[in-house]
Amino acid sequence: MKMENFTALSNSFVSEMAIFDELTKNYLDSDVELINQIANHIVNSGGKKLRPILMFYCKNLFSNLSKEAEINVHKMTVAIEFIHTATLLHDDVVDESAMRRNQPTANSLFGNAASVLAGDFLYSRAFQIMTDVGSTEIMSIMANTTNKIAEGEVLQLMHCNNPEVSEEEYLKVVYYKTAMLFRASCAIPAILSNQTPEIIDTCKNFGGHIGTAFQLTDDLLDYSGTENEIGKRLGDDLREGKATLPLIRLMSTGDKNTTSLLKDTILEPEGAPFDQIVCLIKGSDAIDYTKEKALYECNSAKAYLEKFEESDAKKELMELISLIYMRKG
């Protein structure tokens, strides 16, 4: 099946996504009504469900899953998505975001305190699911992953309004905040199907490169997409004082006036000439440079995927990599 957009991904797993939706509904249930309202708002507000879908594809790379392992993969897709959703709830509070996925953010509807606490609920519920799955190896990976995500959040906070942030420092934030959860998502099916440590590491590395590529294409969309496509205001990263890779590249290659404008904007984004900055970025090599970095990550992911035998799952994962590189939303 040729994937033209992310909708085709979930169409490949209709029965699996039905189970995912049912499990999600069951695990979201709480005696506290406000938690139900907030959690359901964000979980049901759309989104690509890319991490669970990646887990289903990676599961299909292996043919020896027991019935129990299949059930546990389904449970872990929910745990992974809950952790991802918790980070979104917390991110939107920190960033004071008003829109996500073309809908009002939870914090704009329910308030910051309620959103943070609902995120905490999702984190703890995810670890309850993991306890039910009962794999110490998965527990260890997820404990390390959530810890790195938290470190990435703090690093990003430290880099806000910092015009001196380097490409290396920025990519470290990407690795912690985004790639780590992709790594875990791709490794879990291998763990549950009792693969060798070498294969599990291959899945981790594959996922890490996919996650980094996904974030870099996200960086591009903030300057080259449309608000309808990306589900939030264009330029939100810059308005929040965040220097993503296109901006970091332009600051390192632009003339004195351009560099001065960008640094001043990152220090004080309020009222910045966003349209002018977009024109400067598009008139430089910053877009192509970021695309090249994303392509490198995609090609690295493909190299790890090549280590697996030919199968429909492998072929579709190759298509997924290309889709991530070409995505518009």
Mind explaining what this structure looks like?
This protein is mostly helical. It contains 17 helices and 2 strands. It has helices at residues 7-11, 14-28, 33-43, 50-59, 67-95, 106-110, 112-133, 136-159, 167-192, 197-224, 227-230, 236-239, 245-253, 256-267, 274-282, 286-305, 312-326, and strands spanning 99-100, 103-104. The protein has a two-stranded antiparallel ribbon. A hairpin with a 2-residue loop joins strand 1 (99-100) and strand 2 (103-104). The model has no long low-confidence stretch (mean pLDDT 91).
User: Which regions have little confidence, pLDDT < 50, spanning 5+ residues?
Assistant: none
Mean pLDDT: 91
Give helix % range. Answer: over 70%
SS strand fraction: under 5%
From the structure above, extract its key features.
mainly alpha; two-stranded antiparallel ribbon
Write the layout of secondary structure elements.
Blueprint: H1 7-11, H2 14-28, H3 33-43, H4 50-59, H5 67-95, E1 99-100, E2 103-104, H6 106-110, H7 112-133, H8 136-159, H9 167-192, H10 197-224, H11 227-230, H12 236-239, H13 245-253, H14 256-267, H15 274-282, H16 286-305, H17 312-326
Helix pairs in contact: 2-5, 3-7, 4-5, 4-9, 5-7, 5-8, 5-9, 8-9, 9-10, 10-16, 10-17, 13-14, 13-16, 16-17
Write a concise synopsis of the structure shown:
This protein is an all-alpha fold and 329 residues long.
